[in-house]
Amino acid sequence: MRQSPKSPSAKSLRERPLVLATAFAAMIGAVTLIGSGSGGSAQAQVAAKVESQTRPNFGILLDPPTRTRPRHRQRRWNYGEHHPGWRPPLPGPILGQEEIVLIDCGGNSGSGALEHAVARVRPGGTLIVRARGGPCVGWLNIDKPMTIMGEGGFDRRDWDRHPAASIQAPAGLPCMTVAQGVRVEVRDIVFESRHAGQAACVVGYGAQLIFHRTGFRHGGDEAAIYADGGLIDIRGSVIEAATVAPAIIADSATLTAHEVDISQAITGIEIIPGPGEPSRLTAVHLNGTEAQHTFGPRSIGLLVRAARNYGRVEVERSRICGYIDGIVIEGASVDVRHSRICRADKGAVVYNGELSLIENRIRATEVGFGVVSGRAVANDNTFSRVQQVYYAEPRASVDLNGNRVYTRANLCRPQLVPVWRDRYRLIYPRHQGFECVYTSYPGNWWAEEEGWYGIGYYDDAYQWPGYHDFHQGWGWYDQGGAYVPDRRYFGDDRWGQRRSGGGLFGGGPRRR
After folding, report:
1. pLDDT value at position 21?
2. How far apart are CA 293 and CA 250, in angstroms?
3. Using a CB cutoff of 8 Å and minimum separation of 24, what contacts does 383-389 make?
4. Would you say residue 20 has pLDDT above 90?
């Protein structure tokens, strides 16, 4: 009988995993013995490497290392590779670094070219405006010292026929605003702000505004030039300001004006003196509208208001015509010399302060000057067409000397005094500080005053019929003031007694 192999028993199957585990442990022990035989340093390095890789490093998290390998740049299309010889354009100008900037405008409303040109000018640089195609439209907001010049020049005598470079403000906005402490000089430029509304054309806050040969066409409710502190120096300029406000307002600012023509404004200039130098007006022409102040502001040529600082204003060789009140002083010292005030109701009014009138010509329909409170000095002036030379209230002090008066009012009306029978002579009134003049008002004076406006000549002197012959020694006047010409008697002979036997009553004047 064939014998088959034996199948494994249950005991042998339980012992097999134990044998395998024993063999695996023997293998590991052998490897360990081999490794310990080659050295213990390798095991330590491996352990340190594992520990350094697994331990958190907060230093690297706080200060990561910089990239050591450059980032791969994406390849772009190059214009130079397709068009050999092409060179890239030069970089654009850096704002605020250019010494001279030229801008050519032509009605560029809303483009911002003018504002951008101002930003390009470095402090102390120059902006040249060339407006061949029309005015430059924009708002100059200047915060650095600079000079603005127009190309082509400016002549105030014919600036309408030969227009200069102009800057036009947007409707309801100013032409130029200047920041605190900034000095801006403008030359040969015309500013236009005919629809300014509540905005002034030029506004400066503690700034230095210098205008040489400039023009202004302004319309609105505010001044053409307004300065709050700082100074205004304007020369050889023209201002046409159709506004109820003064054309120039210097609020605590020093105003220096030379050869400036101002017209169309209800009030010419308003000055509130500040702590600086005195304001000076030389060869300034203020031409008013002669508007009656039944409502709204009064029409005043030069208004000097009161301030904390008792300031001083000097006016010389100027003309103030066409205002209800030529000069009004509310609390300052004003000195007027060699000037003319015409086409006014009152030449000057002092509500408080000091007024000095030296060698002026004042032509007013009511009073030459009035003083409510303060002091006034008038020497060597000529008053014409006045009802009275001055008016003074009890708190006022007035000093007059060497003044002359041309008027047909009762102030200078001669009186008839009987001399002999029905023959009368003229006796002229005497006044303290002035005398009446009975000769014709000089024609060249008239041409410089109201004749400048095209008004025909009018003689303000009080003249009686036959005045010239009477003063030469001929004739006399009757009781009614009619002149009786008589060439038979000359000089005092017309008043003397007749010689004995010379007439029915034995007397009479001697014949010549």
Report:
1. 53
2. 23
3. 383/347, 383/407, 383/434, 384/441, 384/460, 385/460, 386/347, 386/362, 386/411, 387/411, 389/431, 389/433, 389/434
4. no
Phi, psi of 288 (to 5 degrees): -90, 180
What pLDDT, in 10s, does the model give residues 424-481? Answer: 887 778 888 999 988 889 999 999 888 888 888 888 887 777 777 777 778 887 877 7
Burial code of 391-401, b = ≥16 C-beta within 10 A, e = fewer? bbeeebebebe
| Distant-in-sequence, close-in-space partners of 56: CB < 8 Å, separation ≥ 6 | none
* Mean pLDDT, the chain, whole residue set: 81
H or E element that contains 118: helix 113-120
- CA 399, CA 267: separation in Å to the nearest integer? 29
Helices (H), 372-472: 443-448, 467-472
Q: Is residue 489 within 8 Å of residue 472, measured between CB atoms?
A: no
More confident residue, 509 or 331: 331
Backbone angles phi, psi at 42, to 5 degrees: -65, -40
Distance separating alpha carbons of residues 420 and 141, to the nearest angstrom: 83
3-state secondary structure 154-201: CCCCCCCCCCCCEEECCCCCCCEEECCCCEEEEEEEEEEEEEEECCCC
Question: Strands 325-329 and 353-358, how do they pair?
Answer: unpaired
Token look-up 């004047």 returns: 509
Q: How open is the CA angle 154-155-156, to the nearest 5 degrees?
A: 115
CB 304 within 8 Å of CB 334? yes
